[in-house]
Amino acid sequence: MLLGVIADDLTGATDVALMLAREGMKVVQTVGVPASAETLPEADAVVVSMKSRTNPAAEAVEWSLAACDALVGAGARQILFKYCSTFDSTDQGNIGPVAEALMRRLDVRWTVACPAFPANGRSVYQGHLFVGAQLLSDSPMKDHPLTPMRDSNLVRVLQRQTSVKVGLVPVQVVEQGAAATRAAFEALGQDGPCIAIGDAITDAHLRVLGEAFAGQPLLTGGSGIALGLPDNFRRAGLLDPRGEARPFHAPAGREAVLAGSCSAATRGQVAAAIEAGMEAFALDPVAIAEGRMTADDVLGWAGARLGRGPVLVYSTAEPEAVAKAQSQLGRDVASALVERLLGEVAQGLAAAGVTRMVVAGGETSGAVVGALGVSMLEIGPEIDPGVPWTLAADGGRMALALKSGNFGGRDFFRKALAMLG
């Protein structure tokens, strides 16, 4: 193993796995904290996906360190801590606490934090995160139900989460190349451990940042930061030249879409699917809590329709409706109820012959994959930037498109299913 990746949610893991596979690495994604180094598969890169983005910070740290130990024990020369390209976190963490803990475990004095992903409109300029032309704090992320992002200054955001000094390597330095960029990070680490926000507006900037970290034990960022890492291993003679992409064969069967994310992108995708005629069932967290809506209700509805085409089951709602449900039930209770029910629905759909499933939302994807008993995923073709089809390597034959809530075009659901023919 050359690279070990610790991802704080499932869709983020498939995102970075796709990035590395596209750059010529043999990649395997596992689900959950590895039991030991011996349980990890052989590959150039192993991506460990966890459900730690919104967990208590201490738990996220514990899981991340266990994953790190397993990856290093299996031979990983470098560790990447991967989080969302919109820096999803709160003032309590979990990005800062996990990054700080990994720095101590790997004995590093300086590292990078860069969530930029230009292909999906995420850029970092002078330490500020932009979503398209908007500052993060002006984007729909300001209303995220779990991690509302209302400050675009990542130096400030990250400093509130960690006792490690947080600095900045601006784009003017990055444009001078990898040597100057590395020197800037080293200089920031001279007075004590430092995490520096790395500016990146283009893929070229991400490749410079990647090259600057050749041989360094630790990086942190979105999937974009991985863009330049395979070439580092190639230059060192550790990775073969790029080969042909492996064919992807999705199992024949019925199709379904499960949407738990309430992001603006997913709301648009749900609306587009319904407008195009996809049959849909809307979940109500309050009705679930009161026992008036169960997985059997959803599966009974779906069973009568699966033979006619894909079905859509969604809890996606406007911010006002989400806030109302959370005020009645509590934020964590509302989310847990929906995730648990969608996991049960996924199990029932699989039993009903669904073998092609699109899932929207990181938390939802984790719940669905857990319910289906999947612990390893093979990475397939890209649907939209950052979102591939995957194939369950265990837990039953199933093609899964696991989409971060913020990713994908408006027609993503139909586009994804059409790719499989």
Structural write-up:
α2 (57-73) runs parallel beside α3 and α12 crosses α13. This protein is α/β, with parallel strands linked by helices and 421 residues long. It has 15 helices and 18 strands. It is 37% helix and 21% strand. The model has no long low-confidence stretch (mean pLDDT 94). It folds into two domains: 3-235, Rossmann fold, CATH 3.40.50; 254-419, Four-carbon acid sugar kinase, nucleotide binding domain (Molybdenum Cofactor Biosythetic Enzyme, Chain A, 3-Layer(aba) Sandwich). Residues 256-413 form the Four-carbon acid sugar kinase nucleotide binding domain. Its EC number is 2.7.1.217. Residues 3-228 form the Four-carbon acid sugar kinase N-terminal domain.
Number of helices: 15
The CATH C-level name of the largest domain is Alpha Beta
Report Rg. Answer: 21 Å
Count of strand segments: 18
The CATH topology of the largest domain is Rossmann fold
Question: What is the architecture of the largest domain at the second tier of CATH?
Answer: 3-Layer(aba) Sandwich
Low-confidence stretches: none
Tell me, briefly, the overall form. Answer: globular
* Assembly state: single chain
Q: Please, what is the average pLDDT?
A: 94
Record the strand order, biggest sheet.
9-10-5-11-4-1-3-2-16-17-18-15-12-14-13
Summing up helix and strand content along with how strands pair, one would put the structural category as alpha/beta
Helix fraction bin: 25-40%
Per CATH, the superfamily of the largest domain is Putative sugar-binding, N-terminal domain
